[in-house]
From TrEMBL:
Residues 1-91 are annotated as: Disordered. It comes from the Bacteria. This is Substrate-binding domain-containing protein. Residues 64-83 have a biased composition (Acidic residues). It comes from Actinomadura parmotrematis. The lineage of its organism: Bacteria, Bacillati, Actinomycetota, Actinomycetes, Streptosporangiales.
Length: 405
């Protein structure tokens, strides 16, 4: 039971989504949680993202900015920090370097230790609930399963992590949903600002990057679609073009940002209707073989699909103008001191070799946007970091969110 909301938290015995499962099973219970988030200012450890413009001010998807007629949502009151909450971190080192430093400091101070341990856990476990974007949630569940077996500790208590699928846009817009989680892993750091403007003042403005994956154009190799290696292929009416809604998906927003940068004069308000709703990659290989489909998605989604469908591969294209790397930041939001320590233990575990291997085996690049040579050869993609677009301004990101409205 969540102490501050009165509703079940992931991992509680009475939570229907208990365990390291996720998906939509807990949605009803999420909506039944109390309206307020757990009290406390819990700025997590932060790390600057490559390509993230710190000058950007953010606008919430679906909520007009200061030029609109509707007022911005009233932010949640900033609660006082817990007396025993750990100090804010300011590390800008890579994830595993920062995690290693956390490990040395924490073990030296006797705060938490990493298992496996020869002694049994003492007292109730420290439950850490992670809400992760569906693009990475299943991979994080595998890491969490191993983490739980290894018996990581906060003091003498074992840490137990649960990972639940939470769409990034849903987390931004629904305060009762946010209240259920101690850690948020959205698909991109570009969601952190909109969440804070929606009143989620415990979401840090920056957070450590877990992985990188570029937004790409994808088409079945057998279809012979010629994109010309450019975002302008999305303007080709001869293709069956599909893109996720930019107000609900960062890949969709990135496509709109890119088109505005490379083809501003050719983009009009009807583009959203022309593109149509995004479909899963499996939908590209439907019964109508006469179609020439083109989909906006992520490189990771393509690589994971191809691993399971080798006879019918989909070909990813990073447009020559550049793209945006989705970075899946690890944002600690809880004010509870023990859960914060448990979250830091998980962050450290995510920086270990087995966890990094699991993430890259799933098709994610390193936080720097690279693959090692062997992995790149297996996936048939370049090992180097893809070319990136200029970081979006507040106005550009807001316009991308509203592009289909």
């Amino acid at each position: 039971m969540d102490e501050s909301t009165g509703g079940p938290r992931p991992g509680d015995p009475d939570d229907p989504a208990v365990g390291t499962g996720g998906g939509d099973g807990g949605e009803a219970a999420m909506d039944a949680a109390a309206d307020g988030e757990r009290a406390g200012d819990a700025d997590g450890g932060t790390e600057e993202f490559e390509g993230l413009d710190e000058r950007v001010s953010w606008t919430v998807p679906g909520v007009p900015d200061e030029d609109g007629d509707e007022p911005a949502p009233e932010p949640e009151p900033e609660p006082e920090a817990a007396e025993d909450a750990p100090p804010k971190a300011r590390s800008r080192a890579p994830l595993w370097a920062g995690a290693a430093a956390l490990l040395l400091v924490a073990v030296a101070g006797g705060v938490w230790a990493l298992g496996p341990s020869g002694s049994s856990c003492d007292g109730a476990p420290v439950q850490v609930a992670v809400g992760a974007d569906p693009g990475i949630a299943s991979t994080l569940r595998g890491v969490a399963d191993r983490f739980n077996v290894e018996e990581h500790h906060v003091g003498t208590r074992c840490v137990r992590v649960t990972v639940t699928d939470v769409a990034s846009a849903d987390y931004v817009r629904r305060a009762p949903l946010r209240a259920r989680y101690d850690v948020w892993v959205p698909e991109s750091g570009l969601w952190l600002g909109p969440a804070r403007e929606a009143g989620a003042n415990r979401v840090p403005p920056l957070a450590p990057t877990l992985v990188g994956t570029p937004v790409v154009l994808a088409a079945p190799k057998a279809a012979g679609v010629d994109t010309g290696g450019t975002w302008k292929a999305l303007l080709d009416g001869g293709l069956s073009r599909r893109s996720p809604d930019p107000a609900a998906s960062m890949p969709g927003a990135v496509a709109m940002l890119a088109l505005k940068q490379v083809a501003a004069g050719d983009v009009d308000a009807g583009l959203g209707r022309a593109l149509g709703k995004g479909v899963p990659l499996a939908g590209l290989l439907g019964p109508d073989r006469g179609e020439r489909p083109l989909l906006v998605t992520t490189e990771q989604a393509v690589l994971a699909y191809n691993e399971a469908h080798r006879p019918n591969p989909v070909e990813p294209t990073v447009p020559k103008e550049g793209t945006v790397l989705l970075d899946y930041p690890f944002a600690v939001t809880t004010a509870d001191a023990a859960r914060r320590e448990g979250a830091q233990a998980l962050l450290t575990a995510l920086g270990t070799r087995p966890s990094r291997d699991a993430l890259q085996a799933a098709g994610f690049r390193t936080p720097q946007g690279t693959f090692d040579a062997a992995r790149a050869e297996r996936f048939a993609v370049p090992a180097a970091r893809p070319k990136t677009l200029a970081p979006p301004t507040r106005a550009a990101l807001a316009a991308a969110f509203r592009a289909w409205r």
